[in-house]
Amino acid sequence: MRLKLNYPVNGCDLDLFIDGQAEGQFAEIHKLIAKYNSVEVFRYDEDEAGLLAGTGLSSEIMNIAQSLLIETNDEISADY
Questions:
Q1: This prediction's pTM
Q2: Which residues on neighbouring strands pair with residue 34, listed in sequence order?
Q3: Is 69 buried (19+), middle (13-18) or exposed (0-12) by CB count in 10 A?
């Protein structure tokens, strides 16, 4: 499943590109990219990279991405 959303962080809008899958209450992120004004500031692809890597903000972005994958999967499952 691929998702794209605009996520405000500290008054700045980040574009999140999420590729992953969810099953029940578990989400696996295959790839996650966060961009600010078209500049990549965070990437998760097995390891964290970018300006925000290893920060509290990167943990928040990962948690949001996992929650969105689970929520979107639940909505899709409910439609069937």
A1: 0.85
A2: 16, 42
A3: buried
To the nearest 10°, report the CA torsion of 15, 16, 17, 18.
Answer: -170
- Specify the pLDDT at position 11: 85
| Residue numbers of the domain that contains 73 | 2-79
69/23 Cα distance (integer angstroms): 9
Beta carbons of 51 and 58 less than 8 angstroms apart: no
Q: How many CB atoms lie within 10 A of CB 42?
A: 23
Overall domain count for the chain: 1
Per the structure block, which two tokens stand in for 42? 């965070």
Low-confidence ranges of the chain (pLDDT < 50): none
8 burial level (CB within 10 Å; 0-12, 13-18, 19+): exposed
